[in-house]
Structures are given as C-alpha cells and as structure tokens.
Design brief:
Helix content is 23%, strand content 43%. It contains 1 helix and 9 strands. The structure holds copper (II) ion.
Length: 148
C-alpha cells in the first residue's frame, strides 16, 4: 500500500512538472492576442464602421498584416460592400509611401491585407480608399494615423 502511494505521488509530481510548459505556451498565445492592435474606422459614404485589426503589434522591421472588417455600427456582423477597397501607406512628414500592399477578400465585408511594410519608424497614415467599382473613382478616403 505504501509503495502504491509513493507511485501515485511520483506520477502526480511528474504530471505537475509537465504542466507549466503547456501553460506557458497558452499564456504566450493570450499575450499575442492582447498585443494585437485594433483601430476603429468609420465610412461616412457607406454608413458603416470598419475594424482594422493587426495580427501583431505593427513594426518597421518586417511584414505586417491586418484584417479589415466592415460592419454596421453597434454590430459585429460583417457587411459586404460593392465598392473596391484600396490601401495606401503614407508618411506625411516626409511625403513618401511604401510598396503596394496586397488585399484579399476572404468573405463578404472581410479583407486580409498583407505585405504591409512601414519602411521606417515615425508617424504613418494608413489611407483606406473606397472606390466606385466601375469607374475606379475614389468615393471616400479614410486616413488612419499610426505611430511606428
Ligand atoms: Cu519617411
């Protein structure tokens, strides 16, 4: 009986030792979620709110990616838009931009934006253009300031 108890205690200790690693990785995942930044934009022409959510804290040293989601104000359900979406990265203080980003529609009202390169630290603008699908005329431009 004593021997059995020792075995049980030993196995509990082993289990106990195995746990922290697992918990650490869960903690790290949660940390990443907390670190991601969400900007709340609004389109007057569409009458919609737009969430711009970075996958991780934006930086100037490697590729940044974010999700754009159009939705009714006060609702989180994505709303599809007929207009074309364009994004320009712009550094107003120095009058230059960056290389073109890549925009993929992943569902109605939801877009994945990749190849977002802030090529130097400082104040940038993410310029979101809403364009007429047929004429490509810019209907509205929303400038989101972001410090890198
Ligand atoms: Cu610059």
């Amino acid at each position: 009986m004593k021997y059995f108890l020792v075995l049980v205690i030993l196995s509990l200790i082993q289990f106990g030792c195995a746990r922290p690693n697992y918990l650490d990785s869960v903690k790290q995942d949660q940390q990443q979620t907390v670190n991601s930044e969400v900007y709340k934009l609004a389109s007057a022409s569409l009458g919609l709110a737009i969430d711009l959510a970075f996958d991780k804290t934006p930086n100037d040293s490697d590729e940044n990616t974010f999700i754009l989601q159009f939705h009714q104000p006060g609702s989180s359900v994505a709303v599809g838009v007929d207009q074309t979406i364009a994004i320009i990265l712009w550094m107003p203080s120095m009058g230059h931009g960056s290389s073109p980003v890549k925009i993929q529609k992943i569902a109605d009202g939801i877009y994945r934006v990749t190849k977002v390169y802030f090529i130097m630290p400082g104040d940038w603008e993410i310029r979101l253009q809403i364009k007429d699908q047929e004429t490509s005329n810019v209907i509205e431009q929303i400038n989101q300031k972001i410090s890198i």
